[in-house]
Amino acid sequence: MAPNDLRSPLSRRPDHGFVANISIGEPAVYQLVLIDTGSNIFWIQCYPCQKCGDQNQIPHYDVDKSSTYSKVSCDSWMCREFDGQCNEWLECIYISAYIDYTWSRGIVSDDTLHFITSDNEVESVPNVAFGCGTYNYGDEFGYEYSGILGLGPSKASVMTQIGYQFSYCIGHIKDINDSYSHLIIGDEARLEGDSTPLEIFNSSYYAMLDGIRMGEKLIADKKVFSSQPKDGGGVLFDTGSPVTYLHKEALELLSAEIKSYMKAGNIQQVPEIKTGGLLCFEGRVSEDLENFTEVIFHFSGGADLAVGPDALFDQSRQRVFCMTILPTSANMSILDHEAENLTIIGISAMQDYNFGFDIKEKLVYIEDVDCKTLSDYD
C-alpha cells in the first residue's frame, strides 16, 4: 500500500520560493529542495561531485555512504521517463534545465526518502527514483537549496511515484519568520475549498480562467482566456516561478485598471523608461495601498484566487513599488513553446492559500486559509 501521509515543513527562500526538508539515504541525510509544480524531476546535488554549488550549510549526500543507494538501469522504463540517455558505462544520464538558465545533469538513481507524518513519526519510502546531480549550474544551488523537488504529473515525478494527491499551504512570503507553510503528499493531502478542473498536458498542470475582477469590476472576461493548453493557452500553477505571467491582452486590461486606481488615489506612476518596462509607482505598499482592491482570478468551476497588494506588488526600492505580474512574452521559455496566450500563477500570488491537487479526479482545490490554523497539518 502506498504511503498516504508524508509531510514536510516549507521554508521561504528570498526571490525564489519555498524549500522542503526531506531526508534521503541510509543513514538519512536531510536536504533542502525547492518545491516546483512546474517541473517533474526530483534531483539533488550528489557527492562525489564534479561541479556542485557551494553546499556549506546543508549536509552533503554522499552516494558511497548510503547503503540503500543504487543506479537506475539505462534500459529501464524509468530511465525513459527521465528522458535519460545511456553513457558508455551504461548509466542513465538525465539533464534538467530551467527558465533562468540553471541546469542539472547526472545519473538517474534511486534511494530511500524519509518524511515526517502527522503524528511526528518518520515514514520511509524505498526505491524512489531521482536525479543524482553531479554537474549543476546555478548560483543558488548548494547555498539556498541542494536540489529541486519537481511535483509535476509525469511518471518521473516523486508525487506520482508515491501517490496521486498532494497539497501545499503557502504563508506570507515576506514574513521571514513564517513557520507554518507546509507540503503534504498522499491521501492525507488537504483537498478543501472550491475546486477547478485540472488538465494534464505536456506533463504540466493546467486550469482555465473565466475572468479577472478588480473589486466588483470585471476587467477581463472568459473570451480573453479562451485559448486551450493545446493552443498555447490555459493557466499553469508554478511554485518555482517567483512572479505571475499574463498574456498581452489580459495584462493590458489589468494594467489600465491599476493605473486608473492609482491616479484616482494620487499615486504617481514611475516612467517606464526608468523601470525597464515594469509598471511601478511612487510610495510604499504598506502605507499607500492599505485600502487597495483585491485582484480576483476566477477559475472555471467557481474557484477564486484573490491577490492582495502584498502579493501583487513588490517594494523594489524604499519609495518605489512595482507590479509582480509580467507579460508572458517576458518568459523566453514560453516563447520557445509558442504559448503566448499562457497564464502562469507564480508563488507570490499563492500566499495565504492552500492548494490541493487530486490527480485521479483531475481537480485543483483553492482554499483561502491562514496556514497557522493548519499548523498541525490536519
Automatic annotation (TrEMBL):
Q: Which InterPro entries match?
A: Pepsin-like_plant, PEPTIDASE_A1, Peptidase_aspartic_dom_sf, Plant_Aspart_Prot_A1, TAXi_C, TAXi_N
Q: Gene3D superfamilies of this UniProt entry?
A: Acid Proteases (2.40.70.10)
Residue span(s) of domain Peptidase A1: 18-367
State if GTP-binding is listed as a keyword. Answer: no
Which CDD domains does this entry report, sorted A to Z? pepsin_A_like_plant
Q: Which PROSITE patterns does the entry mention?
A: PEPTIDASE_A1
**What is the top-level taxon of the source organism?**
Eukaryota
GO MF annotation, one: aspartic-type endopeptidase activity
Q: Which UniProt keywords apply?
A: Aspartyl protease, Glycoprotein, Hydrolase, Protease
Q: Write out the GO biological process terms.
A: proteolysis
Record SUPFAM superfamilies? Acid proteases
Annotated Pfam families: TAXi_C, TAXi_N
Q: Does the keyword Hydrolase apply?
A: yes
Per the record, the similarity remark reads: Belongs to the peptidase A1 family.
> What is this protein identified as?
Probable aspartic protease At2g35615
Q: Which organism is it from?
A: Nicotiana tabacum (Common tobacco)
